[in-house]
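Below is one record:
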Amino acid sequence: MISAQQLLFPNKIQRAMDCQAEEEETCEKQYDSENCTCSCESASSTAESNTDSPVILKILQNWVPRVSHYFDKEHYAYVGHRIIIQESIEHFGAVVWPGALALSQYLESNQEQFNLKDKKVLEIGAGTGLVSIVACILGAYVTATDLPEVLENLSYNISRNTQNLNMHKPEVRKLVWGEDLNEDFPVSTYHYDFILATDVVYHHAALDSLLATMVYFCRPGTVLLWANKFRFSTDYEFLEKLCNIFNTTILAEFPESDVKLLKATVREN
């Protein structure tokens, strides 16, 4: 369930939304989860005084010096492996966003809490595939999904970074949020232990379809891990809707990057 200090009640979300000067601009002040106000003070002081507060973290500089002469490749290091990611400026989904770095870092550092070994993992909006690759290295059966126009680059990144490793072979599939879910992923056949999503919420028109997709795949026992950079009022509106459906907890916050990492599970009747 959601604690009072975790900024997830609808009235608190509304007050967080109100602190934004304009919807297109990021609220650079840190949201104080206990007093429901904007504060320029460090959120770490709140975390120290309240054991129920989310962990305050910083995204580590886990990318390593480039060995490639191409501008569109980034080199990262997670779980003892070097990961080379090819990006593309043609699609939003083909760029590594801060939520992917945050979730990759958290999965690497919290393997006892979230043990992915031999678990079935679905990533929605996989983008460049960084999180799916990290999940593969951690031993999961991974299905990475995204829009058709992103799949070629996604498949390339996942293949080049997993082909020579002793792990479960990952799968790359098309998934358009809210469309043909029961036909492509029938309930009788597909059940996932973890749903992963990073920076899937921003100023776009498919948020209702995204939420419907999360609801469809989250069954009893499924854990949804969602990391997102919070920039717009629509981000908080989506968060409110998520909290109205799932048991939701903020696991960690990355104040320097405005990223929050949340865990959501199905409510039991």
Remarks:
- The longest strand covers residues 246-254.
- The two ends are 13 Å apart (CA to CA).
- The chain has a mean pLDDT of 81.
